Amino acid sequence: MILWKDILKPITVVVGYDDSIKSVIQKITSERTDIAFVEEQDALVGYITNSCLLEQIETGQSLDEPIKYKNDILKVPDAIPVEFFHNVTTVIGVDSKGDVAGYSTVRNARHQINELQLIHLNEIIHGAGVGIVRTNSQFEIEFMNETAERFLGLPRSFLLARNYEALLTTEKDLQRVLSGETLVSVNSTINFKQMSGNFYPLKIEGEITGLVHMFYLREEFEEAVQELDFVRHLYSDLQAVYDSSNEQILVIDEKGIILRVAGKFLRSFWKMEEADQIIGKQIRDFARTKIFQPDIFEMCVGQKKKVTSIQESSSNTRIWSVATPVYHEGKLEKVVILSREITSTAPPHEQKEEDAPSIRTEEKQLVYRSGKIASLLNNLRRAAKMNSTILLEGESGVGKEIFAHEIHAASPRKDCPLIRVNCGAIPEQLIESELFGYEKGAFTGADRRGKAGLFELANTGTIFLDEIGDLPLNMQVKLLRVIQEREVARIGGTDTIPIDVRIIAATNKDLKAMVANGEFREDLFYRLNVIPLRIPPLRERKEDIFPLAVYFLEQFKHMYSIEKSYTPDAISVLETYGWPGNIRELENIIERLIVFSEEEWIDREVVLKVLYGDDESKRKQPLVLEMMPLKEAVTELETQLIELGMKKYGTAAKVSEVLEVSPATISRRMKKIRG
Ligand SMILES: Nc1ncnc2c1ncn2[C@@H]1O[C@H](COP(=O)(O)OP(=O)(O)OP(=O)(O)O)[C@@H](O)[C@H]1O
């Protein structure tokens, strides 16, 4: 707001109402002003300007005649805001004591107001980096802001009063602006600087008195556009990361209202099809109405720290969630909940209480999420219904035993015994008696009453011959006979005992190669290899790492009665490791992590330390576990690096920087990875 006292000028010449033209001219000239105020009986009653005096002379009046002054003046308190009055051309400001503080012509007041408003405007737009130049109707520069000075690279002292039209090269005729037209997005050049901006006519009291040019430097603008472009790409990169992530990201405000859902919407957990259906809803209501339990939002808000929990929904879907509070200036602003599903992708094998097979000593749960295991289980359960011999192949620690249990449990023999024989662990001289049993007095040291073999014990049920590749050749012949004849003869016995068993064999060796080397009997191999089922190693089904890691952690937490959780970063490291020892190794590592992590959280650093030790270089070493074509290996390595990079840094721009390739290369590769 502008007050009269801000713009008043001092009154320097006061004359009498009957003073001569000559004396007034003398006084005005000696004071170097162009206005004199007229006094009558100690009161200001009017004013006279140079131009009024000239008019009087021009009309033939003598210099000795009295002046003809104007009286369209108004006295106003100088502390009130500037306003304009009808038929008043000059204002006299009076201070609080009633003394004259100065004067202003209305024209000058309007001019000053424009000037001050421009200065204010300049202050406002200075931060926005907009240049402003104002000229009069002769295009002479009367005002320019600091930004304009900086943009043009020329000092104000040089530019003021110069002809802007002459200095500027523009694609439009500036005369059009003086005719009242606004020119928008005009490119112009001055002092080799390229600008883009708008020209506005400047109107005072309806009269065009000049123009205003508001502009920015093209190069700065282009930089800004590029930056905008970068942010746009960043956004789409992030969106892509979210979309391809296995996690559901919920952003909830401090009151519990769900603001956003990004990443993978866990439909079966919410029992809803679209993420939009939960936006704007109160998260507490879902827990309150038992749609899921527990309420991790409440836990996080209550404990004022990052918390983790396994949540279970009414549809029996289990998810692992980490809720992180976000504070701004000490006040809770949001809670971000990251969740991943841990339930198996296919329904687990149905097992009723009374189903539990007598021989299954410990009940182990088969945990998985990968499509590979889902389809393997599908085949396995179909094969389980028949009586066919099954050969389970897979690296050490992939879970062959657990799959053997699964076959048995899904077979019609599930209520009968399942007997496991570890062919590699029984001393050679005992294998025969263990498998087939012996009659009393069969050999020295033998039980006097004789003993049934494992085949006999498994009768009507299943026998699981683990590590079949370790069976000595002479035993292979005997086993072949049992399989063919479906009967066993105890050592030292004369009778044969008919047996009805389903055989499941398992090996981590390449039996075909052993056959070729003469280490395994071909005829036995074909007898066992009726339904071969290959259990893929963990590195070929990375989706299983996360649910297995959660499962083992839950078991150890229960076993040791402690509370520990992974940070999402820690999970990422576990998922990118090669797992040469498969699930057994994963189980061991999780136990080690529990021991080595001192805090409540198992973080990235402790996982790196447990997996790779202190040796930094080992962490950097790409791990190759099997022979493969070089091209395939390079593609695999590239994929792994990009996936790891996206998980770690989140944007293609940052990943390209770390991998020292162009962002375009990363985008291309990512498109390929996503197919
Ligand atoms: N899908 C799974 N879910 C839960 N636990 C699993 C799973 N697969 C394997 N395990 C666990 O991993 C460990 C190793 O599994 P298992 O002994 O069955 O492997 P294996 O293939 O028979 O190994 P080896 O060839 O060395 O005998 C076991 O403790 C087993 O319970």
TrEMBL record:
<keyword id="KW-0238">DNA-binding</keyword>
<dbReference type="InterPro" id="IPR025943">
    <property type="entry name" value="Sigma_54_int_dom_ATP-bd_2"/>
</dbReference>
<dbReference type="Pfam" id="PF00158">
    <property type="entry name" value="Sigma54_activat"/>
</dbReference>
<dbReference type="Pfam" id="PF13426">
    <property type="entry name" value="PAS_9"/>
</dbReference>
<keyword id="KW-0804">Transcription</keyword>
<dbReference type="InterPro" id="IPR003593">
    <property type="entry name" value="AAA+_ATPase"/>
</dbReference>
<dbReference type="InterPro" id="IPR025944">
    <property type="entry name" value="Sigma_54_int_dom_CS"/>
</dbReference>
<keyword id="KW-0067">ATP-binding</keyword>
<dbReference type="GO" id="GO:0005524">
    <property type="term" value="F:ATP binding"/>
</dbReference>
<dbReference type="GO" id="GO:0003677">
    <property type="term" value="F:DNA binding"/>
</dbReference>
<dbReference type="InterPro" id="IPR035965">
    <property type="entry name" value="PAS-like_dom_sf"/>
</dbReference>
<dbReference type="InterPro" id="IPR002078">
    <property type="entry name" value="Sigma_54_int"/>
</dbReference>
<dbReference type="InterPro" id="IPR025662">
    <property type="entry name" value="Sigma_54_int_dom_ATP-bd_1"/>
</dbReference>
<dbReference type="InterPro" id="IPR009057">
    <property type="entry name" value="Homeodomain-like_sf"/>
</dbReference>
<dbReference type="Pfam" id="PF00989">
    <property type="entry name" value="PAS"/>
</dbReference>
<dbReference type="Pfam" id="PF25601">
    <property type="entry name" value="AAA_lid_14"/>
</dbReference>
<protein>
    <submittedName>
        <fullName>PAS domain-containing protein</fullName>
    </submittedName>
</protein>
<keyword id="KW-0547">Nucleotide-binding</keyword>
<keyword id="KW-0805">Transcription regulation</keyword>
<dbReference type="InterPro" id="IPR000014">
    <property type="entry name" value="PAS"/>
</dbReference>
<dbReference type="InterPro" id="IPR013767">
    <property type="entry name" value="PAS_fold"/>
</dbReference>
<feature type="domain" description="Sigma-54 factor interaction">
    <location>
        <begin position="366"/>
        <end position="595"/>
    </location>
</feature>
<dbReference type="InterPro" id="IPR027417">
    <property type="entry name" value="P-loop_NTPase"/>
</dbReference>
<dbReference type="InterPro" id="IPR058031">
    <property type="entry name" value="AAA_lid_NorR"/>
</dbReference>
<dbReference type="GO" id="GO:0006355">
    <property type="term" value="P:regulation of DNA-templated transcription"/>
</dbReference>
